[in-house]
Amino acid sequence: RYRNSRSLWDRAVKWFCDEKVDFIAQLGDFVDGCNQDLPGGGKKALQELLGPVDQGPPVLHLIGNHELYNFARKEMEDGIPLPGLKV
Known about the structure:
3 helices, 36% helix
């Protein structure tokens, strides 16, 4: 499975910041359905993953089918509030 995904993301964020990229295109499937049963669910997972890029370059977020396992389409259209993040 995707055991190394988090460490790969952390390395990518460091590279994005070190290289001072103009923007990040996050292509979806950022969180998986396994998060829906955890405390805080998908919102907590998003906060943890997006926190490191919050002060970095602008990020374009696309929606993948895995986000639909965690959030209703309407919720995503309206914007998912993530306290403490400017996303």
